[in-house]
Design goal:
single chain, mainly alpha, 66% helix, elongated
């Protein structure tokens, strides 16, 4: 399996590019959470963002990956087990509606870590080892779920803390 070196651009199969774009949006979501915490944003505003994005996008995105994407890598037991561990922890954390700062940071960490695994390892493994037919079917199935999570009216992450 070809694993790109850190910092190297990934040449993504055209049929997998929409999944990669959605992953990029999730990484932007994680960055926004970090900036909100760093900028000392009211935790209720951050929780509203997390809860809406989780409900409207992340649950469907990760459910799709569990049902379709991760099944294609079951032959790699370590990576597959990591996806199952993530799913269990994500399902636990998403139920907490009023997260503390520590829980927000933990939620961000597990989501960020999983999306990086998806991008750097799992999608590469799929494009290197799966048939063109499997990849095209995955792409077609992905068209049925929301593909962006970056639109949010309250852009709290852009606000600098007052001194």
């Amino acid at each position: 399996m070809d694993i790109p070196k850190k910092g190297d651009p990934i040449k993504r199969h055209p049929a997998l590019q929409n999944i990669s774009r959605a992953n990029h949006d999730v990484l932007t979501f994680c960055l926004n959470l970090n900036l909100g915490i760093r900028n000392q944003t009211d935790i209720a505003r951050i929780n509203a963002y997390i809860n809406a994005i989780t409900k409207d996008f992340l649950v469907q995105n990760f459910d799709f990956k569990t049902r379709k994407v991760y099944k294609l890598i079951q032959s790699n037991p370590l990576t597959y087990q990591q996806t199952q561990d993530f799913k269990q922890y994500f399902n636990f954390l998403k139920k907490i509606e009023d997260k503390t700062i520590e829980e927000i940071l933990e939620f961000e960490r597990i989501v960020y870590t999983q999306v990086r695994l998806d991008e750097r390892i799992i999608l590469n493994e799929i494009q290197n080892n799966c048939s063109e037919n499997d990849i095209q079917k995955l792409s077609k199935d992905f068209e049925k779920i929301p593909t962006s999570c970056i639109k949010w009216i309250d852009t709290f992450w852009k606000n600098k803390p007052s001194k």
